[in-house]
Design brief:
This protein is mostly helical. It is built from 19 helices and six strands.
Length: about 500
């Protein structure tokens, strides 16, 4: 009988490509998770942004997302990764080094400053060292950094100078994102203190929401005409982008245990439970107060649910995920639909997609809720600090809520200060906001391109060639926007 010969590349410990420490299942899941998160951005948020804005800003909004993804990838491997997950330079920042060399990328992944010690100096939890190569870890963390900048862009759509955005992305990644990532995930002072952020409620969502709102203040508002009427140009395509965002969140939260383990499964299930609950709660509130369900509102509710569960995904039980969904579907709804419309400050700052509410508010709720509902057994599956628990489970749980609030305050204050400094510096070099003539025209003036071919073979509408407000024998009717659940 013939024997089956397994290629050397697939035999554990017999090839440089398959070292003893490599776990192929973990490596496969981590790369799949990273790709799912990447798909949330490209094409997920590219499609969502290009569809949820007014037609004249479709190309510009999609391009802001596409550019940010590409720029972050290059900055990340050049210096960003090591500043977030490398050797400590300051208690909140890592040393800048490239992550490009073969000798670095093919060795076993490890986060050198994540060793956690008791007060007496003895080791409580050893350094995080997953069973796959550094190349996988760099890739996985890269897509998280990229989506943070893209979420931030949601506050600035429809008026930011594209050249200013091209400068903003690498600067904010370097001086803001890397600080949050190192402090909470890379072994910095908040990580060592025991602040819980399972998958980015603070590092990604709270930071992007606060930074987006701050940048929107410095950039200035859209044109008056756009602020008054800003209907989405393609609701169905917007739903396609939202669907990619929802399904991609399996990689977002499921990949953060750095392993295809039990905690990963809990995280994926809880993510869907919370998102579904939040969507339904937001929709019910729209029906109760506005007498009709809003599709845009449903998408907003979905997003707030995904954001809220992120810092807790693998740390809470299913019933807690439902409670968090109720909170994320109602509190951000209230801040967006009631508080925002009554606050002079919030009205003054033009946060195009309401990122302050959907990401900052929802992320803060999720972080504090984690301090309440984190289950001890699940915490032991993930956290380096032994005996971690939420306040609901007694013991040291009350202290955990305090830690969560302090961690959130650090992220908020740092982002307000750093984002303001970056915007002021860029403003000294070139305008943050587009000139009025570009704001009046949109994509055609900024990029020389338009999203849809509506006249002939795609030429711009010309009243002398195509008639006064008519096409063929049908009059073009302009209808007012009917959306009720978004700040556009």
């Amino acid at each position: 009988m013939a024997t089956t010969t397994v290629p050397i590349a697939y035999q554990a410990g017999t090839s440089l490509a398959v070292p003893e420490w490599l776990n192929k299942g973990d490596n496969a899941w981590q790369m799949i998770s990273a790709t799912l998160v990447g798909l949330q951005s490209v094409p997920g948020l590219v499609i969502l942004y290009g569809s949820i804005v007014k037609k004249k800003w479709a190309v510009n909004s999609a391009f802001m997302a596409l550019y940010a993804f590409a720029a972050v990838v290059l900055c990340w491997v050049t210096w960003g990764y090591s500043m977030s997950f490398g050797h400590q330079m300051l208690p909140f920042w890592g040393k800048a080094m490239p992550a490009l060399g073969q000798r670095f990328l093919i060795q076993q992944a490890e986060l050198p400053t994540t060793t956690h010690k008791y007060h007496n100096g003895t080791v409580e939890a050893f350094m995080i060292a997953p069973f796959y190569p550094m190349a996988t870890m760099v890739y996985f963390q890269c897509v998280f950094a990229a989506i943070t900048l893209i979420l931030l862009a949601g506050s600035l759509l429809g008026r930011m100078n594209i050249r200013a955005w091209m400068m903003f992305v690498p600067l904010w990644l370097t001086f803001s994102y890397t600080v949050g990532a190192f402090s909470l995930w890379g072994g910095g002072f908040l990580f060592q203190w025991g602040v819980m952020d399972y998958s980015g409620g603070y590092v990604i969502h709270l930071s992007s929401g606060i930074a987006g709102f701050t940048a929107a203040y410095w950039v200035g508002p859209r044109s008056t005409k756009d602020r008054e009427r800003f209907p989405p140009n393609n609701v169905l395509l917007m739903l396609a982008g939202a669907g990619l965002l929802w399904m991609g969140w399996a990689g977002f939260n499921g990949g953060d245990p750095y392993s295809a383990n039990i905690d990963s499964s809990m995280a994926v299930l809880n993510t869907n439970i919370c998102a579904a609950t939040s969507l339904l709660v937001w929709t019910c509130l729209d029906v109760i107060f506005f007498k009709k369900p809003s599709v845009i509102g449903a998408v907003q509710g979905m997003i707030t649910g995904l954001v809220c569960i992120t810092p807790a995904a693998g740390l809470v039980q299913g019933w807690a995920a439902i409670l968090m969904g109720v909170l994320s579907g109602s509190i951000p709804w209230f801040t967006m639909m009631v508080v925002h419309k009554r606050s002079r400050l919030l009205q003054k700052v033009d946060d195009t997609l309401g990122v302050l509410h959907t990401h900052a508010v929802a992320g803060f709720i999720g972080g504090v809720s984690t301090g309440l509902f984190a289950e001890p057994t699940l915490c032991n599956l993930f956290l380096p600090v032994t005996n971690s628990r939420g306040a609901f489970y007694g013991g040291v749980g009350g202290e955990q809520v305090y830690k969560q609030i302090v961690g959130a305050l650090f992220i908020m204050v740092w982002n307000v200060i750093v984002t303001s400094v970056i915007c002021v510096v860029i403003g000294m070099v070139l305008p943050l906001r587009m000139p009025e003539e570009q704001l009046a025209i949109g994509d055609d003036a900024v990029h020389g391109e338009e999203a849809y071919a509506l006249w002939g073979d795609g030429e711009k509408y010309d009243v002398n060639r195509h008639g006064h407000g008519s096409y063929g024998n049908e009059m073009l009717e302009v209808k007012p926007a009917t959306g009720v659940a978004i700040n556009i």
